[in-house]
Every structure is written in C-alpha cells, then in structure tokens.
Amino acid sequence: MNGPVNVQQPVGNVQQPVSNIQQPVSNMQNNGIYMGQMPVTLNKANVKAHQNSKDNKALLTILVVFIFSLVVGTVCIIGYKVFSKFSVQRVGVLEDTDSEPGEQENYELEKDTIYSGMDENMVSEDLIAWLNATYAIQTDANELDLTVIGGMDPDDSNVGAIEEGLKAGWGINNKEDLVQKVGKLVADDGDPSDDGWDYSRAEELLAHGYCVGWFNLGEYLGYAVPIGKKIQDRFGSWDEFGDDYVTNYMSWVANGGMGFAGDINQRCTSHQIFVTGAEYYYGPYAVDFDMQLGSSAIASYYDSMDRNKEFPDASDKISEHVKGYIAPTELGVKTTSGIIQIDGDLYMMPAPVKAFLDNGWEIDESEKNAMLSWNKETELTLKRNGRELVLGAYTFANTSGAVENGYVDRLDIEAKNGIEYVLPGGITTSSTHDEVVAALRAESSREFKEGNGGSIDISLAGRAEQYTTNDINFCFDNDKKISVIFYNCNSYYADDAESTVRNIIFDMLDQNIGDANNRKAYLDAKYGGSAKKEPVIDELSCTECVIGNEIYSINKTISELFDSGWELDDSSYSGNLLVQPGESKVFFMHYMGIDGAGAYYGYYNYSDSPVRITDAKFNILHIKDSNWRVTSYLPVKTAKKMTLGNSYSELVTYFGEAQIPDNVEQERQGRHMTAYDYDLQDGKVRFMIYDDDKTVGDIIFLQVD
C-alpha cells in the first residue's frame, strides 16, 4: 500500500518549526490568518483560500521521497530553489503492495456528473475548504498551502514536483492511472479500520491530479465529492477521521513505509492543532464536518460563535501532544518508528505519562505531587505488579506541570526487574550485537553509526529534522549482548506547537472571530445564505454606514447600539449622565467585542433642554485607523464602499472635490492629517486625509438636527 505523496525538504535542511507554519501549521505565527477564517477565493488560475499574504518563504526545497522495498537505498530527490532550475535525480519506486505481480487492475470510481462544466465562479468556497481539510495533515507535512486544492497552484512553476511524485511513488503517469489508483483506495476491502487513511489519500491524489492539469475543476469535484460523502458516512467528526489517518500512517511507517518517529509525531501534532484550532474558529477543520456537500455548500460553523469562549491558563493547559496522543495498534518491523512494547503494552514515543498510568502503572508515592518542567528533565519511577520502571519526563512550555500531564521522552532500558522490552524488528534486552545490526539493516531506510566498544546509534528524527537528541543508543557488554538501551525521543513539533496554540489560537481569539465573521458575511453575500447580501449605499450619508453586510444607522440610543453588537469600553459613561444644551459627550466602544474594532460614538445636544444619555440618539461616529485595525476584513464603509485606506482621488471620483475647513488638522504617529468635508443636507461626513500619501485615516459622521 502506497503512502502519502511527500513533498518535503531533504534531510539536512532544517525544517521550520510548527510555530512558523507556512499556511500549514508551521506558518500560522507568520501569517496570523489562514483558511479557517478567510473566504476561499476562486480564480481561473487556481482554487484557493484568500490569504492576507502569500507564502513568503525565501527558499523552498522540495523532496519527493517514496517508500521502497524492492529498490534498496534509492531515493528520489527533486530539489529546487525558487527561481532556479530543477535538479532531478534518481527515483526509487515501490510497486503497489496491494497488487499481485502481473495483476490487471480495473476499479470503478464513482463520478457525479452534476459538476461537469463547472468553473470557479459556480463553486462554493466552503466546499473547497471542506475537501482541502480531508488531506490537510499531509499537506501540512509537505509544507504546502492548506488553502489551495492539492497544496499548490496549478500554474506554479514547481507543480512538476507533484507530477513527478505521482509517477515515482505511485506509478501514476496520467489521469487514467490516477482514477484507477483512487478507485482501488476507496473500494470496499472488508476492513473499515483503515478507511480514513485510504479516503484521505484518495482525496489527496485527486487534488494533485487537479494541480498537474489532468482534471479540470468540474472533473475533480465529480470524483472528490462522492468520496467526501463516504467520509461523512463512515466518520462522525474531523477528530475521528484524522485519528484514523494518523493511526494507519503510524502502522504504515512501522511496517516499512518511508518515515520515522519524528514524522509520525509531526502528523499527530498537526492533527491535534487543527482540532484545537477549530474549537476557536481557526484552521482547516473550522468547517462543518457534516456540511451538505454540493456546489453551493455554505457552512453553518460560524453561526453561533462564542465571543467569550474561555481558554485555559498556562498552568492548567494540557499539551496538544498529550491530548492528541494515539497509541499504536501494532509493533511493526521498523525500529526507528518510535514504537516500543513494554510488558505487552505498545507505546509511541514520546508517550504521555498518562498512557502508562492508563495501562496500570502507578507513580511512586513520593513523586505524585512533583511538578514537571519544560526545560529540565524529571526522573520518575512508575510501579506495577512489584516492578519498577524508571523514566525521564518533561512538560511543554505554557502547559500544566502536573506529572500526569507530562510526557516520557527517555527510557533507560536494562534487563532487570523482570520488565519485558521489545523493539520492532524483534530487538530485546537479550539481543546480541549481530542481531541488532541485522534488524537495523533489514529496515534499509536509515543508516546507523557504530561507536567505540561496538555501541550502535540510530536516529529517530523525522526526514526533515536536524534534532540530534532523538535517537536509540545500544550499548553492549563484553559478550556482545545488550547491556543497556538509551531511548531518547523528544517531539520537535509538539514542543513548538504550544506557542502556536497560545499565541495564535488563544491570544488572537478576537481577531479569529472577526476573520470568521468576515468569512461568513462574504459567503452569505456571495451565495445568498441566511444573512442578506452586502449592501451598497449609493449616496454619501452622515447617518448610515455599512459594517460587514449590515447597514448601520448611527441614530441609535445606547441600548439600540448594544443590541447591534456594540460594547462600551469607557469608564466615563453613566446612565444618569445629563448632556446639557450645546454640549457633546463621546464614548469609546468596541464592535462585537473585537479588540481591533474600536470607535467613538457621540451625542451633541442641539436642543434647549438637558437630555439624559440613555434617551439620546447618537449623532456622531468617529472611526480612526488607529482604533479600527480590522479594515482588511471588517471595514466600515461609506457610500460607494469607500473606507479607511482609500485614496483622496477615489473620494473625488465618486463625490467630487471636498471642502477644507479652517484649522482642522492633527498629527498621528508623526504623520500630518488634514480634514476634507462633504457637506450634506442633514450634516456632513469628514475624511481626515494623511498629507504624505493622501489616504483616509479617519471617517467622521456628523449629523445636525
């Protein structure tokens, strides 16, 4: 059975940590926004999610590596730098292990012809987002774009690497071959335990077929959507579906598939971050798993967002690695998979302490209240049936230090206390030097080193990692039998992932919700969902503006503003406040609780009598770019969709020349601004324009009774 199509950096290039996740998990901190929040933008060149910024990697090197058992030691490396010429080397090809030699495959693959002839203007972006999520774990591992079908634009100059990978790793040379392979993956083999693994790879192959130009959009959807419906019928959530994928990827690696412990941990981490991110309206899983799939599909995921959703403090947070841990189902044959059997129980290293506790081990009484550290190993003693297991444990930064929430990254394995240890390949504490060498050579996937005294060291790091502390070190006595095995397996990805969760998913909740609101407004406007389409005000008004897809009347009482989603953030406000004739009162407010959506609402009393503020209808709204920092996805618009950041020349085009009032100037962060007024019958709209670039910095709506 073939594994996923791998498009990665070669070993030797340090892969960016999860916090640098480049559209995948590794770029979330750099971009701050990705598909889970922003609408997917379809155009003739690609089908992708809208991004605030393109992938800004200065250097991208692609490695297409595929498993092999018949061609020993041959690896495909397609390396390139941006703007450079391809360098294609030899390719190692694995025959399809599901087929008998000489077997003629002939698989039927369901195709929904309703999508025939559809182009990007006829397809819901939410449908694309849903399909992208089905293979997001592998897209992230390949460091490709989670928001684009197949992870790469069809017109990308490097898309040939995907085509070469299909040929080298799967023996797929054309559309017909691909349809047959996908048909084989989704055929009912009588074993539902690996359906998530099979369906995800099927969706990925179809997406790559679209990337390389073998399918147009309608053909791709015709094959991909029916498989998506199979996924929905078989699984109940993205979490369950992803767990199946990771579990079977683990088994695939353990039984000889290209990959190591680091690669398994990377996929476990990505999947769990996607699960947590979705809880906070962020990431590829932030779309209804059970969404009705179709060309006009619109997710309801964002309809009931909790703007006050709590997230755990650092001292209480359980790490993503511990929450997302998946125990292996088989030991396999590959020593470097990170799987180990201890007294009959299987563990994937680094394993949570809780995994040992769940299997009946107990923490020594003197250590139960110990607090683990993220930068210093704590030695723990676990006991079961009169035997003691000594191990090294850590926690991750910004997570709970409670022992049960830590993870085990080190085992010193010795033949004592009657504990039985078995490593893949049949290595035990009674194995000889020659037996260990034979088992490691049988893997044929990674070189090992022999040191002084005959010790053997082999890395557990992922293919793109340079993490030297991830290894197994075998030491031998004078009789060439194992004396001790030092097993070290930290998680490069899981440790760094915690900063991503804290800084991007938790601490940017307000922005994530704002992005999600914009996504919903955009899709509802485009496809006629439950919300009305984005309105456009034709004539300049001092009493109306557009926020999102709603027309807002400025003339509202404070209670009406609250009902519209505004929240007070001003200690000077009091319900008993009286506004005297000729006096004004202005209060700072936030829209929908979004930190970056602040504005000043005010009331000027034109009457001859005092007015209680709770009875007043506000007649001033002042929007500043320094307070309203969400214009890119939630703009406040005047007529003709004019908003902050527009140029003065655009204002003149729509509204004519403005009046410049005397002595109305200001400075903001060293930049001089001048007022430009448009006088209306019932008031005016004032635009404060930066002198240096002639763009709008403030919009002020002033109504005169």
Features:
705 residues; alpha+beta; 3 domains; 9-stranded antiparallel beta sheet; 16 helices
Quick summary of this structure?
The protein is α+β, with helices and mostly antiparallel strands.
- Span from first to last CA? 76 Å
State the share of residues found in helices, binned by percent.
Answer: 25-40%
Q: Oligomeric form of this entry?
A: single chain
Unreliable residue runs = 8-102
Q: How many helical stretches? A: 16
Largest sheet: 9 strands, antiparallel
Number of self-contained structural domains: 3
Number of strands: 30
Mean pLDDT value: 81
Overall shape: it is elongated
Strand fraction: 15-25%
Which structural class matches the secondary elements? alpha+beta
Radius of gyration: 30 Å
Protein described:
There is one protein chain. With 705 residues, the chain is an alpha+beta fold. The chain folds into three domains: 18-98 and 113-316, no CATH class; 321-492, no CATH class; 534-703, no CATH class. The strands form seven sheets. Strands 7, 8, 9, 10, 11, 14, 15, 16 and 17 form a nine-stranded antiparallel β-sheet that branches. The chain has an eight-stranded antiparallel β-sheet with strand order 20-22-23-25-30-29-28-27. Strands 6-5-12-13 form a four-stranded antiparallel β-sheet. A hairpin with a 5-residue loop joins strand 29 and strand 30. The longest helix has 19 residues, at 261-279. The chain is elongated, with a radius of gyration of 30 Å. Residues 8-102 have low confidence and may be disordered.
Write the layout of secondary structure elements.
Elements: H1 28-31, E1 40-42, E2 47-49, E3 78-79, E4 87-88, H2 125-133, H3 136-141, H4 160-170, H5 175-186, H6 195-211, H7 217-234, H8 238-254, H9 261-279, H10 320-323, E5 339-342, E6 345-348, E7 351-352, H11 353-358, E8 362-363, E9 378-384, E10 387-394, E11 407-413, E12 421-423, E13 427-428, H12 433-443, E14 449-450, E15 456-459, E16 471-476, E17 482-488, H13 492-506, H14 509-527, E18 544-547, E19 550-553, H15 558-563, E20 566-568, E21 578-579, E22 584-591, E23 598-604, E24 611-612, E25 620-624, E26 636-637, H16 648-655, E27 665-668, E28 671-680, E29 683-690, E30 696-703
Antiparallel strand pairs: 1-2, 3-4, 5-6, 5-12, 7-11, 8-9, 9-10, 10-11, 11-17, 12-13, 14-15, 15-16, 16-17, 18-19, 18-26, 20-22, 21-24, 22-23, 23-25, 25-30, 27-28, 28-29, 29-30
Helix pairs in contact: 5-6, 6-7, 6-8, 8-9, 9-13
